[in-house]
Specification:
Blueprint lengths: L8 H29 L20 H25 L5 H20 L6 H38 L1
Amino acid sequence: MGKVSDNESRVIARRLAMFIPSFYLLFYVVAGVFIMAYDLDYCGTLPFEHAKFADGSDRGQAALATTTLAFLLAPLLMVTIVKSSSNAWDYVVTVALLHVVLAAAVSASWPSNWRWWATVASMTLVLAVVSELINYLAELRRTAKVADALNS
C-alpha cells in the first residue's frame, strides 16, 4: 500500500473539514478578545462585519482588528492541519472565498466597504505567503530529520 498523497481528494476534504472550523474558532476567539477589550455587546457577527468595518466606531475598529489578527494567526493552523506547502494557497483561497460568502450571508448584503475588501484581500495574500513559507520550512525540517536518521 503506497503513501497517501497530499493531492488526493479525500485528504484535501478531510483537511478542509478540519481547517475551516478551526479557522472560524480562531476567528471567534479573537473576536471575543476584542469584544471584551472594546466593551461591546456580543451578537456573534463581528467576524463578518463589513458595513461598519474600520469606520472609526468601536465596533468597526474591533472588526478590523479581529480580521487582521485572525488572518495573522491562521498560519499556525496551516502548519498543524494542512502540512503541505504546495497546497497551502489552495486552502487559503478556499477559506477566503468562503469568508466572503459567509459575510454576505450573515449580513444579508454584499460587502461594499473598500476597507473590508482591502483588508481581506491583503490578509489573504499574507496568509498564503506565510503559510507556504512556514509549511516549506517544516517540510525541510522533516526531510532533514529523515536524512539524519537514514545516515545514522
